[in-house]
Amino acid sequence: MEKVLGRQGSVVVGDQRRPKTKIVCTLGPQSRSVDMLERLLKAGMSVARFNFSHGTHAYHQETLNNLRTAMNNTGILCAVMLDTKGPEIRTGFLKDGKPVQLKQGQEILISTDYGLKGDENMICMSYKKLAEDVKPGSVILCSDGTISLRVLACDKENGLVHCRCENSAVWVENQEGVMNFDEILMNSDAFMVARGDLGMEIPIEKIFLAQKLMIHKANLQGKPVVTATQMLESMIKSPRPTRAEATDVANAVLDGTDCVMLSGETAAGAYPELAVQTMARICKEAEDFINYGDLFKRIMENASMPMSPLESLASSAVKTANSVKAAFILVLTRRGNTAKLLSKYRPSMPILSVVVPEIKTDFFQWLCSDETPARHSLIYRGLVPVLSSGSAGASHSESTEETIEQALQYAKEKGFCKPGDSIVVLHKIDIASVIKIQFV
């Protein structure tokens, strides 16, 4: 990795031109090569998503190895998101591997014998108890709710379900997840707004409201939130998104999402690099439209009181940075907690989070903490994590000043600031925390 801060420091992300909103890319056949991964990292990918609903462990291990090589070649760190296979039902193979076109009003038979190969008259599903759990009048949703099958009859003995393709309005309303969102959020470290799943559980006209509600509540808790599903879906085949898709991405940014996610666009699409570049441009444009002063006031109005000392410090640093129009906020951190709280208060400028490793010694060997805190920061809006080398021989104050100077040099090289700009620095001196304004 590129050496920046100290003898062993490393750049973790790119430069000032990147949007504050992070981009999650699902890796697949079109994006798992070292060359394409390097291009995605340079285009703006901050998190690589591995979808364990597809592929073997060996397949994903090879992809992970390629990602590590790409990170090493580019000097850009990328977080890894593992999307484990949930309780989903899958359709089986089709005869000759040819897709089946279902038309409205067409009747089709569903078999629970997963070994059969389907055609236009019959498909198989992986759930053995399907014929027992549905009844005439039930609706089965397929492909993120784009196909609607109404049950006409069930043959429990032979595991067969006779259906008619509706492809019209879905009369399924299950808002349990939305209603229990506060409890779910309380027990989560981060949250994903999976609009594909929501689209199958609540009426389509209410999805926008559920998205805004969940993002808002996650923002108030300072927990990162990812908005996902069909964000630039048309770019699987087209080099340009639709206007509706561009607006959808921008609205998610305006709602307050920390990350936006690409699925088939990067996993199996024809233009994975272009999809990331397009999403980055849309995010940047939307971020420039936000009134950060009003946003900070709204967050403060909803903040829990009394604040913890650390959160009070973070909110004060953001207020100071907004007031002096600082070029960026520089925070020295070991575990990343202070930097994450800074992100909660949504400053208008980037947050340069210098992760200082913890160095421990028993006089026989040195132990240095890894880059995990920096990786975790990659799903928080506005955070730019950078790894710093430890300074074994210097005192704490000498090491702190040295790290700040190295961080400023890095910031100038990457375009975060220019001579004459002010920055806000947040760090510790012994047991005291300090907020100071420094000029470049």
From TrEMBL:
Assembly, in brief, is:
Homotetramer.
For this protein, the record's Gene3D superfamilies field holds: Phosphoenolpyruvate-binding domains (3.20.20.60), Pyruvate kinase, C-terminal domain (3.40.1380.20)
Subcellular localization is given as:
Cytoplasm
PANTHER family per record: PYRUVATE KINASE
Keywords tagged on the record: ATP-binding, Cytoplasm, Glycolysis, Kinase, Magnesium, Metal-binding, Nucleotide-binding, Potassium, Pyruvate, Transferase
Q: Which cofactor does it need?
A: K(+); Mg(2+)
Q: Name one GO cellular component term.
A: cytoplasm
Q: Pathway it belongs to? A: Carbohydrate degradation; glycolysis; pyruvate from D-glyceraldehyde 3-phosphate: step 5/5
Look up the EC number in the record and give it.
Answer: 2.7.1.40
Main localization is cytoplasm
Similarity comment: family membership:
Belongs to the pyruvate kinase family.
Pfam family of the protein (one): PK
The biological processes this protein is annotated with in GO are:
response to stress
Q: What is this protein called?
A: Pyruvate kinase
Q: Which reaction does it catalyse?
A: pyruvate + ATP = phosphoenolpyruvate + ADP + H(+)
- Molecular functions per Gene Ontology: ATP binding; kinase activity; magnesium ion binding; potassium ion binding; pyruvate kinase activity
InterPro entries on file: Pyr_Knase (IPR001697), Pyrv/PenolPyrv_kinase-like_dom (IPR015813), Pyrv_kinase-like_dom_sf (IPR040442), Pyrv_Knase-like_insert_dom_sf (IPR011037), Pyrv_Knase_brl (IPR015793), Pyrv_Knase_C (IPR015795), Pyrv_Knase_C_sf (IPR036918)
Lineage start: Eukaryota, Viridiplantae, Streptophyta, Embryophyta, Tracheophyta
Q: Where would I find the Pyruvate kinase barrel domain in this sequence? A: 20-170, 172-276
